[in-house]
Amino acid sequence: MSKKRRGKRTKAPKTLLDIVIPVMGRFDLLTQCIESIPD
User: What is the value of pTM for the model shown?
Assistant: First the structure.
């Protein structure tokens, strides 16, 4: 017989999207990109 798992299982939050923004040290572009991402 297999053992039953007792207790609650918690799921790790899933990432909907990874965003890669190549700004090459231009923090003005980085700020604009971050501000344009909806919450």
Answer: 0.37
8 A C-beta contact, residue 30 and residue 19: no
| % of the chain beyond a pLDDT of 70 | 90
pLDDT (0 to 100) of residue 1: 62
Q: In Å, what is the CA distance from 10 to each residue of 7, 13, 16, 34?
A: 10, 9, 18, 30
Assess contact for 33 and 23: CB atoms under 8 A: yes
With residues binned 3-state (H G I as helix, E B as strand, rest as coil), the percentages for the chain, rounded to 5, are 25, 0, 75
Cα three-residue angle 28-31-18, rounded to 5 degrees: 125
